[in-house]
Each structure stands twice: as structure tokens, then as C-alpha cells.
Here is the input.
Amino acid sequence: MNNYVITIARGFGSGGKEIGSKIADRLGIPCYEKQILDMASEYSGINKQLFAEVDEKLRGNYITNWLKKAPTSRLVEPTERGFTSDVNLFNIQSEIIRELAKTQSCVIIGKCADYVLSDRPNVASFYIEAPRKECVRSIMNKLQVPEEKAHELIQKTDKYRADYYKYYTNGNYWTNPVNYDLTLNSARVGRDRCVDVIEDYIKIKFKDCCIFKDEKSHLI
Here is the structure.
């Protein structure tokens, strides 16, 4: 194994993006979130704004989309109908994610990456969550919004992410612990210690990876 991938799913306000960025910095590997939208736009020629409109959310609700047609994994050609449909935009992003997993070590935040890469032995997936009061405090500080607005943003964003995940994983649910190697409560252990836990875990799981073979660590 020459490379490994860390996927991070996260509740809004839990610090998952921060944790993902910090583990990437510590390990000296790139971290991808919004960058995947740029890469998907460049790959397909589709305006980035369209990818932004469906970034971890459905246009319409889960039931409406489910009644239309179950999603497929086939990429639609530019000349075909549905080239800019939600499903094809998701599939283009998924193709980018799979290509990254083949070619480099990296951290991927969101985008159903744990599901897209579920068949890959070089992937470790983590879900980061925290109690609502901690998430509210985090959003209030980060976005400078009042408590009521923070509650609203958390409820709306987590609903978007849950519906998106459920639709593209054929009914699985986003917070299912079986989807992930580990689920971490960032409020209990602290965000920096979440980074420590993830680092320790991947060094155990990927101990045969050439990147870690020569590293002097008590874990290997």
C-alpha cells in the first residue's frame, strides 16, 4: 500500500472540518473539501456554481427525489440529457474522489466519501459529532450569529447532509456508526485530541503502508 485516505463526516459545528484540516497538516498531506467542487468543474466543464448548489444537499427533498428515480453511478455524457442533473454532479464528484484515493494520501471532508470509497482497503473513515450546546457555541463564535440563528443553521445544515447521504447511499443513514472506523465526540475529548486519536488509529490500521514503515513510533 503506497497511499492512504482519511474521510471525515461531521455534524455542523462539531469541528470536523477543523479536525480534518489539522490531521492533514500534521501528516503533511492535502485536505479536500470545497476544492473537490473546483476539480469536478474543471474535469467536466460544468460551471462551479452548479456544483455549489448541490454541495451536500439535494435540490428538493429526499422523498421527492426518491420518487423520481433511484440514483445510478453512470456518468452522463455532455451530449446526453441529465448532464447537469444532481445525480450526475454527484457522480462526477465521486469520480474525482476515487481518483484521489488511487493516486495520493489525503483527507476528504464530507461528500459521502466514506460511502464512495467503502470498497477501498486504504481508507479510514471518521464521524465527528458534539452535543448541540457545544455546536451552537461553536457556530455563534465562528459566524458571529445569535443563539437562535445558530440553532437554525445547525438544524438546516444537518438535515441537508442527512437527506443527501440517505439518497446517494440508497437509504443508509449518515450517523450510522457502522459506516465509520471511529465516531468521535469532539466535546468530550477535545478537537486537538481527536487529531491525536485519528493519527494513532491510522498508524495502526496502515502500519504496512510504506509511508509509515520506517517511522519510529511505539505504535508500529
The longest helix spans residues 147-168.
